[in-house]
Amino acid sequence: MANPLQRVVVYCGANVGNRPEYREAAIELGRTLAAERIGVVYGGGGIGLMGVLADATLEAGGEVIGVIPEALKALEVEHKRLTAMHVVPDMHSRKAMMLGLADAVIAMPGGFGTLDELFEALTWSQLDYHRKLCGLLNVAGFYDPLIDWINHAVEAGLLKAVNRDLIVHGSRVDDVLHGLRTRPFPLATKWMGR
Question: Which of 11, 75, 102, 136 could join 7 via S-S bond, C-beta 3.0 to 4.6 A?
Answer without folding.
Answer: 102
